[in-house]
Amino acid sequence: MNIKGKLIYEGKAKKIFAHEDLDKVIIEFKDDATAFNAAKKAKFEGKGILNCSISTSIFKYLIENKIPTHFLERIDEKSIIAQKIEIIPIEVVLRNTAYGSICKQTTFLPGTVLKDPLIDFYLKNDSLNDPLLTRDRISLMGILKFEELKYLEDLTFLINKLLKEYFLNLKLDLIDFKLEFGWNKNKEIVLADEFSPDNCRLWDMKAKNVKMKSLDKDRFRNDLGGLINAYSEINKRINHFNSST
Ligand code: TMP
Questions:
Q1: How far is the CA of 235 from the centre of ligand 1 (A)?
Q2: What is the pTM assigned to this prediction?
Q3: Do 94 and 130 lie in a common domain?
């Protein structure tokens, strides 16, 4: 049985419920969207279902390609079962193309393709506004040892390679994304959280003009409108690709 137990945690975009098997949790995707550390908030009807669908497809693809993840199964339109994990309190951002915060903090112009993919770490701490971290700070705070951090970086580069290829088939350019990882009950590091247009940037290679190219949460961040249409388009391309392979 997959009945949602008590609410364990409510985040900005997901709720986590207990599962009768204590090694598992049920994760429900919400329609809420936030940006700029929740300074901006809105609700988009249908976003939870779309993100659950997109994230499920991406996690299944990564699992097929031997990436360790928390994902177990999708149980309804907006819920999945996942391994219960202890979250590692860092956000791992990988950038293929400079956009967003990196353009405010460096001299990279928006849209510059980076020579090599870049990984940036941020502390998962809303009250500190998720500050940028260094490897030494991560180690000094006791979050991860150097070799664990190296493993996490290698895994992130591999995930990027797999996903860049995946999205290229869908005529989508993977600009950047944010990942979260956790420790499972066997003390293994696994990919956790979600992979959806809420936490990545995807540009439509078929877009007719620049205003149409973002198919991700930048539509909300930058008041471009059409968020549900954009997420639906990604979901449609994924489903079309899944049914043709
Ligand atoms: P940034 O340009 O704000 O640094 O964002 C880089 C990527 O990380 C982008 O795909 C959005 C994603 N992201 C999150 O998923 N959560 C966050 O809290 C932030 C700041 C970024």
A1: 20
A2: 0.97
A3: yes
